[in-house]
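Reply to dn_fold:

You asked what the input looked like. This is it:
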Amino acid sequence: MHFVSLHGAYYPNNYGDVLILNIEAEWIKELTGKDVSLPFATDIYRSTLQSNQVTGKDSIIQSDYLIYGAGGFLGEPPADIYKWSLNFLKNHLKPAMLAKKHKVPYSIIGTGVGPVSAFYGKAALKYIAKNAEIIAVRDQESKDYIAQLVDKNKPIYETADVALSLTKESIPKQVKDQVQNEYLNFDGLKIGIHIGADRHSSEHGANVQMVIDETIQFFNQNEHLTPVLIIDNDNQVQREAVDFIAGRLKQNHVLFKHQTIWETTALLAELDTVITNKLHIGIVNYAMGNVPISIPYHSKTKRFYKQIGLEELCTPISEVNKGLTLSLLNQISTDVLNGNKGKYQIKREEMKAKALNNKMILEKILNRDANKL
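and this is what came back:
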């Protein structure tokens, strides 16, 4: 049985992680004609990516090749660093060790890397990087970070997030039609609100509340607009934020809850702008020709907005100040109404080409032409 093993951040039904691994899985199937196996994934990943039934360590040691796939799992979050580092050893060092022991070649393709603070986490990342055949990372910061961990002669390729390969043509037509009829069947600007940060947090809750209050203010000053409230992970924080916003809006709103990656992608494709704290909500909205506003919890999100030359649209939640959210919503809505979306899309084609370089590299290594890179 011939198949390729694909490893990533297998969190339960996380829109961005499922989407980007699905893109890579489809590329692998197209390029090789082989099945894809997901070593330690949850059922939602196996179902969406239509993986084979080989699981656990067998998924790696019986595979023809292992890909460390897209996602930011080779870098730590802003908080709980030492707990994350211990989980990193368990979740992400293990595939590399199994592959090396059983002589299964592997590469890192389209992944975000660093920083990693704890010495044991950094040692694990160094092991993963050192033994990879090919390394292709999604931004310059990842390239600079991983270059410190490997031999200076080892080539490292800078690509871009695989989701930037998407266009509106990537979305199944029936899904587009369904989302349009069910959620977006109204006139005027399409503006999404996605708040996945806790307004009650002792650390940054006041800033989250500031963003929420100014978003409500914007819509109440523009009662002709229909807000689209988005829940991409049906947890208490997002439900509570949506209930708070909905209860203070003067107009009717639309509520969208993530179910499948293509429904959510179809929605983001049609939103002129979306205010979000998640990386891939913003990336997909941008990839579809729109203008995301980012208020991330994770500082690494800034890498993407720097890459596309729109750093002014990304302010970490810890740095939000009074008037910022209202100003950005007014600025972008005016630009969209005046037909000026294009000024935010100057690097779009370059980013799409860089994203597709991940597919080209996959083709070379999976067909054993890595020496031609």
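The chain has two domains: 3-158, 168-349.
Hope that clears it up.
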